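Fig. S4 source data, part A: sequence.
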Amino acid sequence: MGENRIKLEDILVASHVLKDVVHHTPLQKNYILSERYGCNVFLKREDLQVVRSFKIRGAYNLIRSLSDEQLAKGVVCASAGNHAQGVAYSCRALEIPGKIFMPTTTPRQKISQVKLFGGKFVEVLLIGDTFDDSLREALAYGEREGAAFIHPFDDAKVVAGQGTVGMELMADMREPADFVFGGIGGGGLMAGIGTYVKSISPGTRVIGVEATGAPSMKQSLDAGGIVTLGEIDKFVDGTAVKRVGELNYTIVREVVDDIVVVPEGKVCTTILELYNENAIVAEPAGALPVAALDLYREQIAGRNVVCVISGGNNDIDRMQEIKERSLIYEGLKHYFMVNFPQRAGALREFLEFVLGPTDDITRFEYTKKTSKENGPALVGIELKHKDDYGPLLERMNERGLQYSEINKDPYLFNLLI
């Protein structure tokens, strides 16, 4: 995948190539986050990029480096969404054909955007459940048809393109940046940003952020070599890869100071806060760096901190799930399997004597459809304060109810919720 490092000059060249296509996105001081963490928090708004994510940078930089003969044969890529949009936009801008392979699990909004940006120049093929499935098919197609494969992260030209994010944010900082936080999937973004930042400001700490369900770079660095994960949680779709890039692993090992792992539920809370408090629509991967600030609260106090909001392609259909995951993570939403006593009025007693004054039943269904008054029921309860949970359990125990806490049983939880 090209040479095993990229240099500062590669990023400067990429910046020149990209200047007429890519927005120089704003670096905005966020007063709410700054106050919350007792430091200066700046958001690098790649969600305001021309395709609503940074991915256009690497994709266009690589495509522009191809020969006329290669361009005539067209390009092919695999992507969970944002890279596909960058490739599609590039194909339309350069008027070349593109085949884009995407997992069947890709949010509908991202598929629509790819078609919108690519117009008549691109064709979208939905293949497999994960990025890795799509990747296999795209590589096979490229081999078969002689189309240039545009890798979403593991390519020197792609990494150099993503490095222009670092170039812009460092140019826009009026004071030295003490910390730069950014999400890691395949590693292209942070390999590029880290290369630029460390070249001009070795003292700046570069922090990569991954989701708990797909910590491929952290596990690889801990193991001293690239690890391919088995099952991953695809919720943070922009960073959900089983295997990081080989080039990127080599670079990240040298230019990223630490990698932190954030639970998906915490990411959901952050998405909602960014929207409600700042009117920022961040996708899960875009919210990762802000979600990580809690884990670095002590180190960042009084410092200048940049968080890269890498993308804003969030499907509105997902908001209900995001809210649900946030409530569960915050300890405000709980699910039980309750075995009600086999007598009349048992449910009424539950509502009257067990439920707290501010507790709310958000889901209720008997599991035995033929005998509704007997047998267990699935009960979802939303609390006003997480401290109300203990008293709720105490009242259930006092009434002698038989119940199981589904939140604490991963198998049952995934089956029912």
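Fig. S4 source data, part B ends here. The longest helix spans residues 156-172.
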